Amino acid sequence: MIPENKDILTVGDLTGQKRYKVGISGLDELLNGGLISNRAYLIRGGPGCGKTTLGLHFLTTGSSQGESCLFITLGESAEQIRTHGERIGFDLSNVTFLDLSPTSDFFTEVQTYDIFSPAEVEREPITRQIIEQVEQLQPKRIFLDAITQLRYLASDAFQYRKQVLSFIRFLINREATMLFTSESSAEAPDDDLQFISDGVINLVFSPQGRSIAITKFRGSGFQDGSHSLRLSDRGMQVYPRLQPGKHQREFVAEAIASGIPELDELMHGGLERGTVTIISGPSGAGKTTVGLQFMKEAAGRGERSVVYTFEEEAEILLQRSELINIPARKMVERGTLSVVKVEPLQYSPDEFAQMVRQEAEVKNTKIVMIDSIAGYRLSLRGDDLVAHIHAVCKYLANMGVTVLLINEVVSFTGEFRATDVGITYLADNFVFLRYWERQINSVTEVRKAIGVLKKRLSDFEKTLRELEITRYGIKVGKPMPGLKGILSATPHFTESDD
């Protein structure tokens, strides 16, 4: 299930320590429940990656539970941090700030040191202020931004490492859990800090989007790999990469009917729960309409369905459905249908997977339709279509949800092709639609046919049936054994069968 937002929980590992939630549900999920208390964790990332925002989540989550929390800033002023934090909704009224950033007086009052180096002169008052504040407040959570500023108060790398280790031990001995950031570069890397810390969280901002990855977490397992991240006016959201094997729900693999007897006969009862069905065919053949027919029948049973449309506008889909006797708008009003328009580049694949999880786990959705596979590939940020759609489909199947994948083949005519992308292995069922020609009294008509190419859990008819979409709904005819050239360029009836 999607993790609940509890702030502290006791872990069952060998440490016997508590975990403190960061306050970002997706990140806490990656951390298997949160950060282990009384330890120090490094937050890495370039400018604008969200390091300070993550720290504000960590502190305000603690302060909301009555914990004493301390923000130590060595760069940006406390006033600026408060202003920016409150602007995106953080309540910092119960967070204590220790502002060690340079003031304007440092520039106007030129200071020179004739005997001692600047590092030796300034290290002592900064250290004293930190000790006094920690001793007075006894904070449970500390965020320091950025610890690499202390590098300039050390005479060499060895002294800097000893200072950081001593500083962390000082805080841990006072039962504080600490997050600290680094400002690394090629000239001044932070490899030493990665070795010292108990955990490392990496934030990345690239042309492909924002991401987060955990590369170290002492004393605990965690979800590795790169996961999507978004910064918004609500702070930071993390979307863990979907791992289907971790999700399972018991269900009965019963057949669900379409409500059209002839179509159900073609499929020997309908589509089974927890299966993936590809509905393939050229543009305008009726792929989406066939999928909506199963949703209409599900609504009659009081079950919820959702359509993710990547190409067609939601309002147009609703209007078109009503013209063919599918009351989609009423279904939406009753909560048995949701139509979600996914705009180009609006979501990463991980964000989309999180939306799907909400439908399956929170709203108990029974049918999910992705319309279409090509639109999915073009609209979502990311380049590995097969891996992401595989994860979503397998997850839904494990949860007992019936998945409909709409696949549009490029050409109206030509040699039969199942799909234009390599995902047919995902399908438990493969339903295809084709145009075919029929000549009546020297007049050639273009008609539609529907057939089944594959069905894992039951048998199916091996012939095609004529398909019509009328204002009264879908009409499916009897089997057409006389239809020739089904897999060729132009399916047609022979004269003898006509």
TrEMBL record:
SUPFAM superfamilies found in the cross-reference section: P-loop containing nucleoside triphosphate hydrolases
Q: Which Gene3D superfamilies match?
A: P-loop containing nucleotide triphosphate hydrolases
Keyword terms: Hydrolase, Kinase, Phosphoprotein, Repeat, Transferase
Report domain KaiC positions: 18-252, 254-490
**Gene Ontology terms for molecular function:** ATP binding; hydrolase activity; protein serine/threonine kinase activity
Residues covered by the Rhodanese domain: 324-377
EC number(s) on file: 2.7.11.1
Leading EC class: transferase
PANTHER family, A to Z: CIRCADIAN CLOCK OSCILLATOR PROTEIN KAIC 1, PTHR42926
Q: What is this protein called?
A: non-specific serine/threonine protein kinase
Protein source organism: Cyanomargarita calcarea GSE-NOS-MK-12-04C
